[in-house]
Amino acid sequence: MKKEIFVTQPVLPDLEEFTELLKDIWERKWLTNNGKYHQDFEKALADYLGVPYISLFSNGTLALISALQVLNITGEVITTPYSFVATTHALWWNNIKPVFVDIEPDFCNLDPQKIEAAITPKTTAILPVHVYGNPCDMDKIQEIADRYGLKVIYDAAHAFGVKQNGQSILNFGDLSILSFHATKVFNTIEGGAIVCHDEKTKQRIDYLKNFGFAGETEVVAPGINAKMNEIQAAYGLLQLKTIDKNIEARKLIDNSYREKLGNIRGIHFLSENKSLDYNYAYFPVFINEEEFGISRDEVYTELNEQGIHGRRYFYPLISQFPTYRGLDSASSEKLFVAEKMAKEVLCLPIYPELDLEVINTIAELLKKLERNLNGNIVSK
Ligand code: T4K
Q1: For atom 33 of ligand 1, which residue has the closest CA?
Q2: Do 212 and 220 touch, CB atoms closer than 8 A?
Q3: Fewer CB within 10 Å of terminal CB in the chain, N or C?
Q4: Residue 353 Cα to ligand 1 middle (Å)
């Protein structure tokens, strides 16, 4: 039977080392609520990422929902339609109106040139996403935010460990959130975090993720329960041991895709950003039907039939889902670039243990599928 290849596969920590930590947790009987491993993991993570303060969460979505509460965001928030639904859902759960703004074609991030036109008296914040781990134009976004008195919360779910000119991109904006879901570059099975710049804000985040408790009998805010437990924190501590090696392995795969698919007409990649320490979270290709001869969906189906399961991240656009499609900002003509990218994108498998042979198989298949402009299959 052919082995099924998925878009990603999680890396797990060494089972024996994890078992040792589990034995310790079993003895301690301290399972959650800011235990030893939670504290150790927070410190180790802040250190690894090069950020001053980080608060662990049970997942990235709760981190996002809570980040909006931390800054008391209300009214309207400018965001991107080209992301995972959780980005906009976090606004919805806070009773905030999402205002979609188009993306730029180089990295599929929110287009700063189009933000100002979407600002109204009700706008309180900007919620951009570092899509696929590539940084947004953070200087321009901050300039606009400062001019209009807006907060900036980065959805950095894909951006674990990414540095620009040697500086963690998590240090930009007012807050950044991370996801440690099983499908991410760095996983704690489920998990997430908020990165902030000062101790007071960290304190508020920590109250909010623990029902608002500031002491045994004192509740300072209508908080939620979004704490990471000890087992996940211990698992996360072990994951830090191999993360560099895993990112290095992803880099090889990225390079190999670029080399093997680079000269197929109609297959495009995102630009390479030379100022980055990148994490190679995803490998999106964009299939231009006119140039390639067949559509992205046909390629997606063909690959699936060969047992290679790419994913169309991010199609459909969030603005096309029933909850959001009635919004003025969801109309197609305003989201031209996002619609084009969503129609063309296919994220190919990338994970440290991926057999490099799979890349050859994908390259061969794409070459077979590529048609010349008269509709004939190009013979190779
Ligand atoms: N913001 C952004 C920009 C995000 O991308 C996300 C999450 C969030 C916020 C929210 O963060 P979290 O609350 O999730 O922490 C996946 C993930 O579930 C989701 O975390 C992620 N973004 C999104 C981009 O991708 P699906 O529905 O595509 O996952 P699924 O289950 O189809 O998994 C994809 C493939 O991964 C599977 O075909 C096989 C493989 N896989 C998956 C799991 C769960 C494994 O091999 N092992 C596993 O345990 O959403």
Answers
A1: 183
A2: yes
A3: N
A4: 18
pTM: 0.97
pLDDT of residue 127: 99
Taking only the tens place, the pLDDT of each residue in 277-336 is 999 999 999 999 999 999 999 999 999 999 999 999 999 999 999 999 999 999 999 999
Q: Ligand 1 centroid to 147 CA: how many Å?
A: 36
**What stretches in the chain show pLDDT beneath 70?**
1, 371-380
Q: How far is the CA of 182 from the centre of ligand 1 (A)?
A: 7
Look at residue 289 in the predicted model and tell me its pLDDT. Answer: 96
Joined together, the tokens standing for residue 71 give 């800054």
Q: Do β-strands 283-287 and 267-269 pair in parallel, antiparallel, or remain unpaired?
A: antiparallel
Helix, coil or strand: residue 245: helix
Which residue's CA lies nearest to atom 17 of ligand 1? Answer: 183
What angle (nearest 5°) sits at the alpha carbon of residue 178, between those of residues 79 and 321? 40
Residue 375: per-residue pLDDT = 54
pLDDT of residue 374: 44
Q: Sign of the CA dihedral 26, 28, 29, 32?
A: negative
Strand ranges (DSSP E) for the chain? Answer: 5-6, 53-57, 76-79, 97-100, 123-127, 151-155, 163-164, 167-168, 175-179, 192-196, 213-215, 218-219, 267-269, 276-277, 283-287, 308-309, 345-348
Q: Going by CA atoms, what residue is nearest to atom 22 of ligand 1?
A: 84
User: Best of 11, 12, 103, 183 to mutate for ligand 1, by most ligand atoms within 8 A of CB?
Assistant: 183
Distance 240 CA to ligand 1 centre (A): 20
Helix (H, G, I), strand (E, B) or coil at 59: coil
Verify whether ligand 1 is closer than 6 Å to residue 8 (CB atom).
Answer: yes
* Distance (Å, whole) CA 32 – CA 284: 37
Residue 155 in contact with ligand 1 by CB distance below 6 A: yes
pLDDT at 2: 72
